[in-house]
Amino acid sequence: MVAGNSEPGTRDAIFLGITAGVTILYQFSFFVVAYGFRFDKVTDFAGTTNFVVLAILTFLLRGSYYFRQVILTTFVIVWGLRLGGFLLLRILNWGEDKRFDDKRNDFCKFLLFWVFQAVWVWTVSLPVTIVNASGRNPDFESRDVVGWVLFGLGLVIEAIADQNKLAFKNNPQNKGKWCDAGLWSWSRHPNYFGEILLWWGIFVSATPVLGKGRWAVVVGPVLLTCLLLFVSGIPLLESSADKRFMMKSEYRQYKKVTSVLIPLPPALYGKLPLWFKQIVLFEFPFYTSNVSGSEEQLQGE
User: Fold this and answer.
1) Which carries the bigger pLDDT value, residue 18 or residue 95?
2) CB 50 within 8 A of CB 77
3) Which among 253, 247, 254, 258 is positioned nearest to 289, based on CA atoms?
4) Tens digits of per-residue pLDDT, 199-251?
5) Separation of CA 63 from chain center
6) Taking the domains of the chain in order of start, what are their residue ranges?
7) Beta-carbon neighbour count of residue 247 at 10 Å?
8) How many CB atoms lie within 10 A of CB 293?
9) Are 213 and 11 in contact, with CB atoms under 8 Å apart?
10) In sequence order, what are the beta bridge partners of 187?
């Protein structure tokens, strides 16, 4: 048990310092392996399992074992082991990760990626870290149940989406095609929707414990959401898919009738006005590449 009788602010600072140190050490260890042996296939595994390490560590260090702490720690373990195992097996099966084609031989670029991954892990873990550090055990509220439901839905959606895409990619008949099977027929990025949903669920179920100053942990799910919507998630994948498939009218129709994030029936989404899609459903203009000059070629399809 660490700092069991300390003031809440001091205890939080101790746990934040410990998790920061462990995260840096954990990520640096995997960076050495990835760069030294040119084996970047462990990158995603290192990220997801780091969440598991922090959740278990903070749970054991505090030693209070309140039911809310047990639930949230278990949530992170289940999510991290499932996703980490899935991503590791997938990359071992598919080969090299193209995200690192311009980084794996550049020490500074590659190191910067791992530093950013450490920041991501530590920040997104904040709600669970603070719950496990807390000595408070308030009565259960409706917020707990809402958070659990959001997490459960997000986990199921993410797992189903991953399996849908894996099965699609493993079918030789789908070589060179974009995935539009299962949940991917209702959302272009259903796995990201599940990811966002489950982490907001963890935050919501953590809120009964949060007191003065602790609400700052909302930066965790906010950072995750912003990364997926604006930085390393959807923008990169949309750009990559557009470069490969935008010349195909079937793909452009798929984008037109398929929600970018929130799963919706194509028959409904396709009829919604563009302004509604952009403002309410995250269909931002920068998700579509400039394809001017391609129409002449399309006329001959």
Assistant:
1) 18
2) no
3) 247
4) 999 999 999 999 877 899 999 999 999 999 999 899 999 999 999 999 999 99
5) 29
6) 1-137, 138-287
7) 15
8) 7
9) no
10) 259
Torsion-angle region of 104 (φ positive above 0: left; ψ -120 to 50: alpha; else: beta):
alpha
**Tokens of residue 7, six digits:** 């003031």
Per-residue pLDDT at 106 exceeds 90? no
Local structure of 263: helix, strand or coil: coil
Residue pair 17/119 in contact (Cβ under 8 Å)? The answer is: no
First-to-last C-alpha distance (Å) of the chain: 68
One-letter amino acid for residue 92 of the chain: L
Cα–Cα distance measured from residue 222 to residue 266, given in angstroms and rounded to the nearest whole number: 28
pLDDT > 50? residue 298: no
Contact 129, 19 (CB under 8 A): yes
pLDDT in tens, 243-265: 999 999 999 999 999 999 999 99
Tell me how far apart the alpha carbons of residues 188 and 261 are, in angstroms, rounded to a whole number: 6
259 φ/ψ angles, rounded to the nearest 5 degrees: -60, 140
Maximum C-alpha span of the chain: 75
The tokens for 231 are: 């930085």
Question: What one-letter code names the amino acid at 68?
Answer: R
Residue 164 structure tokens: 């849908």
DSSP secondary structure letter of residue 171:
-
Structure tokens at 220: 């965790």
Q: Which residues contact 167 (CB under 8 A, 6 or more apart)?
A: 181
Distances (CA, A) of 93 to 97, 168, 180, 190, 286: 11, 14, 21, 22, 32
What span, in angstroms and rounded, lies between the C-alpha atoms of 208 and 55? 18
Determine the Cα–Cα distance for residues 205 and 153; give it in Å rounded to an integer.
Answer: 14
Q: 109-142: per-residue pLDDT in tens? A: 889 999 999 999 999 999 999 999 998 888 889 9
* pLDDT score, position 94: 73
